[in-house]
Design goal:
Elements: H1 2-42, H2 45-65, H3 70-87, H4 93-109, H5 113-128, H6 139-152, H7 157-169, H8 173-184, H9 193-212
Length: 214
C-alpha cells in the first residue's frame, strides 16, 4: 500500500512539473502567434519586412530558452517564411532555407507538435518557394506534406486552406473549392481570433477565385 501511494505521488509530481514547464512555453508561443498575426494581417506592406525581422529575433530567443522543444522551432520557421515573403526576391531565399531547416529539426523532436503544423508549414514552403535551380520548391512534395498535415488535423483551417490554395494554383478548381470550404467551416481556434480573421479573408478570396472557374 505504501509503495502504491509513493508511486502515485511520484507520478503526480512528474505531471505537475511538466505542467509548470509547459505553461510559460505556451505563453511564449501565444505571444509569438499574436505578434505574427499583427505583422501579417495588420501591418502595412512597407513595414512588414522590419516587423517580421524583429519577430524572428524574438522567436529565436524563445527557441534558445526552450531547447529540445519543437514548438518554438515551428514558430521561428513560420516567422521566417513571413519575413521572406515580405522581403521578396533572391534575398529571401536564405530565410526560406533556414525555415525549412528549423521545421526539419522540429519534425525530429515531435512531428505532432501544434497539431502537425510542421507539415502544414513545410507544405506551404514547398508550394510557394521557387523550384530548381533557384531553390527547393516542389509542388508534389508540397502535396505530400499537406496530406500529412491533414492526417494530424483533418478539419483544421490552415492545412485545408493551404491545400486548397495549392490546388487552385494548379488548376484543380473543384477540389480547391472543396478544401477551401472545409477551411471556411473550421472551428475557431482558442486564443487565435486575430489570425483566424485574417485567414478567413484569404480563404474567401481564394474560394471566390475557384468558383469563378466553375
Amino acid at each position: 500500500m505504501r509503495k502504491t501511494v509513493l508511486t502515485l505521488l511520484l507520478a503526480f509530481s512528474s505531471q505537475f512539473a511538466a505542467a509548470q514547464e509547459a505553461a510559460p512555453l505556451n505563453g511564449a508561443i501565444a505571444e509569438l502567434q499574436h505578434e505574427w498575426a499583427k505583422a501579417n494581417y495588420q501591418t502595412p506592406k512597407k513595414q512588414q519586412e522590419a516587423a517580421f525581422k524583429a519577430l524572428a529575433d524574438k522567436a529565436r530567443q524563445v527557441g534558445a530558452h526552450y531547447p529540445g522543444k519543437a514548438e518554438p522551432l515551428v514558430w521561428e520557421a513560420i516567422v521566417l517564411a513571413g519575413y521572406a515573403k515580405a522581403k521578396g526576391g533572391l534575398g529571401a531565399l536564405d530565410a526560406v532555407k533556414s525555415a525549412r531547416e528549423l521545421l526539419q529539426r522540429a519534425e525530429k523532436i515531435d512531428p505532432a507538435a501544434l497539431d502537425g503544423s510542421v507539415y502544414t508549414s513545410l507544405g506551404s514552403l514547398y508550394a510557394k518557394v521557387p523550384g530548381w535551380p533557384l531553390s527547393f520548391g516542389d509542388k508534389q512534395k508540397a502535396r505530400e506534406y499537406l496530406d500529412k498535415a491533414l492526417q494530424f488535423n483533418p478539419s483544421g483551417i490552415d492545412p485545408n486552406y493551404f491545400y486548397g490554395d495549392l490546388l487552385l494554383e494548379q488548376g484543380e478548381y473543384a477540389r480547391a473549392a472543396e478544401y477551401l470550404r472545409k477551411a471556411q467551416s473550421a472551428v475557431p481556434r482558442p486564443g487565435r481570433a486575430d489570425a483566424d480573421a485574417g485567414r478567413r479573408r484569404e480563404i474567401q478570396e481564394a474560394l471566390d477565385k475557384a468558383r469563378s472557374y466553375l
